[in-house]
């Protein structure tokens, strides 16, 4: 018997009861694309775990500034905001030097994508995507505009709440998790069929970024804080991999 505490295991098992089921008929497109057979769990190979890695040389000076990285002849239209936070592991330790990417609609609710046919106009000064590496403390930071809500063809009058897609890479390309960040106080969150596929209210709350007036810039930008937890009971809900990273 020893007084030395055992080190934590390499992984915390994700609680699948908190995950949205693949088949959720109220989210209509899930009916056609949900799997009919049990999922297969595959171990990562050494090459997938160890690389390739991202470095500061892979990023441009404006990659995390969506107000400037696509601007042609002026500033983007919309409410200027800061989105910031930390990437943490299951024991609240920072995850340094990991690539965080975001993409979003413009202030009118339209994506810069050829298949987006929503009637809101394209903003010529807004590209809608950015990326940065977390620092040694796991911290990331973006400047952007608050995205608009937009309609989508689910039921007669469904609207997606304002949201930003967030991607986090691990130590290699095969380790990628994707989620969506919503904004505090948005009444459309409770009405969104996609959000409501998550069966746990606390898990939904962890997708909602609170207003952070301490990080706001007076007369310039409001700020929202969104910490990303990769595994464990307080983990962020991810779209693409229910089993976790």
State the gist of this model.
The protein has helices spanning 29-33, 46-50, 201-205; strands spanning 80-88, 99-104, 129-133, 139-145, 150-152, 158-160, 163-169, 176-183, 208-209, 222-225, 228-229. It is mainly beta and 245 residues long.
How would you describe what is shown here?
Keywords: Dioxygenase, Oxidoreductase. With 245 residues, the protein is mainly beta. The chain has a single domain, classed as Aromatic compound dioxygenase (Protocatechuate 3,4-Dioxygenase, subunit A). It is 6% helix and 23% strand. The protein has helices spanning 29-33, 46-50, 201-205, and strands at residues 80-88, 99-104, 129-133, 139-145, 150-152, 158-160, 163-169, 176-183, 208-209, 222-225, 228-229. It has a five-stranded mixed β-sheet, with no helix packed on it. Strands 1, 4, 10 and 11 form a four-stranded mixed β-sheet that branches. Strands 5-6 form a two-stranded antiparallel sheet. The longest helix is centred in the N-terminal third of the chain and has 5 residues, at 29-33. It is globular and about 55 Å long. The model has no long low-confidence stretch (mean pLDDT 88).
Throw out a few tags for this protein.
mainly beta, oxidoreductase, Intradiol_dOase_C, PCDO_beta_N, protocatechuate 3,4-dioxygenase activity, Protocatechuate 3,4-Dioxygenase, subunit A, 245 residues, 5-stranded mixed β-sheet
